Structure formats: structure tokens, C-alpha cells
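Methods: example folding runs. The two proteins below were folded one after another, and each record is reproduced exactly as written to the output file, sequence line first and C-alpha cell line second.
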Amino acid sequence: MLNHYPFHILEPAEALVKIQSSEHGQRIFLSPCDQPIKQVRIAWRFDTSFMTQVLADTWGVALADLEWRSLPLEHAAQWYFAAYDGTHTHCFGVKTGCNSFCSWEITDEGVTLCCDVRNGGEGVLLTDTLLCAETVYYKSVDGQTPYAACQTFCQMMCDKSSYPDRPIYGFNTWYYTYGNITKASVLEDARLCARLASRVGADAPRPFMVIDDGWNRNRGGGYNGGPFVPTDDFGDMAEVARQIREIGCEPGIWVRPLVVLEDLCPDIPAECYSENQDYPDRGKVLDPTTEGTQRYIRELISGLVKSGYRLIKHDFTCPDLMGLDFLAPNVTRDGWHWHDKSKTNAQVCKELYTLIQEAAEGAYVIGCNIYNHLAAGIHDIVRSGCDTSGEHWHITRDYGVNTLAFRTYQNRAFFMTDPDCAAFTKHVPIELNMQFSELIAMSDQAFFISAAPDVLTQSDEERLMELFRRIVQGGSDLEPLDWMERRVPKAFYADGQTRQYEWDE
């Protein structure tokens, strides 16, 4: 569609922007100049009255804010949006891996694409021509549901998807311990995880036992960054990994790569610290455009892999890169820049994710709290929503079930999506989390649970054993059926039948 409508370059000067037609849209190039540039804005003029309902994406993790809405939207759609006209679904977006933070404004007169090319909170000083973004448009074929149209559109947006060649499932320590873990508790969790996987078959890949936040001695008072040194209780983390593997699980571990306690890192030069510091009393944020930061991250990730961890979960790079307002429509605050002023924020993000992936040396990587559109084609697994909860069911309903319904169409089109854990504790209804688990297992996504000791009955364990077996079997076209009417859908189609759920306690 966009190729057929007139467009107007709103900023910067028209001479700096080049538009080139592509198969499904247009490539937008920005030439270097002597002045810093913050954004490129292009408007296409056409009647948008056909857009009766609109589904907009968001920068990073979903925050219970994904749903079909009528126009006007509260703020610009981030990365892409789908519009329904009553018969067909029209999808507008940019290809994954773009070099700018892209958002779409929708008015009665047309759509405007904003390519945020800032370096930090200031204009970028380009040294080479930049491909800001490549637009993509798709209109559903006759009879195609809006959900199926979104699946097709995600495949069109991603030229190089990356996802594991095995099922990703297992146990995570966070949602019943919230960091209060010991070596003994982790090994006991591993035994439970191995028992739940006892029916997957002798030749099936092992489940992962992911040690989440809590293994590092440098935490407390709201701080959970580096340097990452195990507590005295955990001791040698390579030995912990060995014991997990001996029990029957693959070891995984959590890490936060961009925040450190400066006093404990004398080898990190001052230039390695970001100008964008939102944690004055809780460590300092690193600038990933510096060699010292890159060396620290490379050694951190590769060291964990060499200690035997086959899954690395890295966390918090969104707020650590952009500041605590990282999900706001403007991405980050004004008035700061990276050490390397020639790169856009999107380029900085992509280079950081690539560094972590390469340092993992063949281990699987889960990106948690990252910019999903920029991680596609780099990471195999990406958390699609904000944290679920082992304390309040409504958080799991809003962040887990909503995210699963409105982000699963990205699964295996961008990467393998991870809708986060089903948490089995005394504070949340086991049956509702069991239903959440069933949906995840049927959707062919990553499937992790947390379970407090002595909470699961024998019957509960039997059901989870079958769900572990189901996730290993793989394959299903899970589709929410009432997602255009409900923010938390109750009707889903999977395994050839319609299933109804009730999510209220």
C-alpha cells in the first residue's frame, strides 16, 4: 500500500533522505552531515477510515497493554501495527533489525513513520549512510484470520529468524524464592525438574534448571548487578553446574550485564560508564560502545559458559541502556550521549545483543527485558512480557496470559518467544497456573515453571509431567479466538479443538 501513496519527508532536510522501493515497502536512507540528527519523519497521505480496530506493538516487553483498540490511539504504535477493516487485516511496520527506533502515528489523513536515530538523548553524528528502516505492508488474503495475518506479517518483517532446534523447557528459581536461594535449594529444584521430565523419553533433550537472581554475593538493598561473584554458599559455580547435570538437567543461569559496583571494578576505566545514570545508590551503568565494557561483558558471559552453563538469561538491558523511562513513547530522556557518538541507539542495542550471543559460544541465550524487534535474528529466545508472579495471580493473568495471546504470533517468526513462568506457590491458584501452563505447552514456546517445595500434589506433578511431555512433542497452531474483544482472551484454538478458560480467581 505505502508504495502506491504519495509521501512527504517532514524532517530532516529532504536532501539528506533517500527513499528506495523494496518488495513490500520502502527503504529509508539517511546521509551523514555536519549536524547531529535526532529523527527522520515521513508521512503517507491516504484515508484511514477503514481502520475500525487497531493492534499496536510496543518497544520491549508487553505490560498488559496489548489489545485491539479503536482510533485514535493514546500514543504512537511502536515498530508495527495491524488494522482491521471488518474483512481484511492491514499490517504496517518495519523490518526487524532496523537501525532506528520506529513508531507510527495514525491520523484521519494517513500514517507517519518516525525513525528515532538519536545517540543517547542527542542527535547522532553519522560517518556513513544509514539504512534507518525498511517499511513492510501486508494485506490479509480472503478468509485469513487477523491472528494468522499477524503471523504472516511477522515472517515478512524478519529476514533472518533464529530459534532453538530443540524444545526449551524446565525450571526457574525466581518466582517462589525471589532471590532467596541456596545451593541446596537449587539442587532440590533440579531434582523436581528432572522428575517432572521423567516421561519425555530417553532420547529427548533434558530440561533446563535455570538459576535466577540470588547466586551473586554483590546484591541487596535493591542492587543485583556485577561484578558477579558467587556467594560462599554456592562456591564454585562450575561444581554447581556439574551437580545439576548429574541430577539430569541442563544448567542455566541469570545475569545482569550492564550494571556494576564501581568500587569493586577497579579494572574498568572511567570512560566505560554511561552518562545516563538512573541508579545513584545502586551501582553504575556501563556504556557498551567502549572497549572496556565490551571486554567485561565478553569475559562475564564466556566465563559462565566455560563453567558449564548451557543457557544464559541476560536481563535489564532496556532500562540500563535507556534509563528508567525506557518504555515511554520517546524511548529515553534528552541530554546525554554514548562514548561513540556515531551510532544510533538501535545500533548500540544490536551490537550489545550480538556481543552477548557470540560470547555465549553456542549456549542458548534468553534475552529478558530487551527490545524484541532489535533482537530478532540475534537471540534464539526472547521474553515476550513482563514478569509473572508467584504472589499475585492477577499479575500472571495480565502479564502472562495477555502476552501469550498477543505475542505468540511472533514465535518462530522472530525467535522462540518466552511468555514467562507459571508460578506454583501457596499464594496463587494452582489450577489457574496449570491452565496457563497448558496454553504454553500447546503453543510451542519456551516453557518454564517455578514451584515452591511441598506445594504440588502428586496429581499436580502428574499433570506437569504430561505437559513436559507435550512440549517435547512440539507443534501446535495456538490461536486466541476472542482476542479482538478481550484483553485477556478466554477462548483458544489448539490441537484441533476450541478450549475455554476462566482467568478470574
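Second run, written to the same file directly after the first:
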Amino acid sequence: MLSNIGIPGLIIVLVLALIIFGPSKLPEIGRAFGTTLKEFKKSTRELVSDEQPEDKKKELL
């Protein structure tokens, strides 16, 4: 999906974000997005690791 945007489209999106949110808010938004993504990855890893032992137990039965 993002591969269809290209470099010019990405630059336009970044310029629009700079205009809408301003230079002081962009670092805060970036940090919040990074933290959210980090928590999401952590949660998915925990879900996958929790499900693996159950799958192995079922295979043994």
C-alpha cells in the first residue's frame, strides 16, 4: 500500500503534517506513535509465545 505513494507523495504528506501540527508537536506525535508501535509488537509477541506451548500440548495428545 505504501509502496504506491513514492517519494514525492511521501514528501507532500510530511509537509502537510508539518503545516497541520507545527514543528513543536511533530516530535511528540512521533514519540507517541513509536511507543504505540512498540507496545503493539510486544503484545503480539506475548500472544504468539503464549499460544505456542498450547499448540505443542495439543500435538502431543
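Comment on the second run: The first helix runs from residue 6 to 21.
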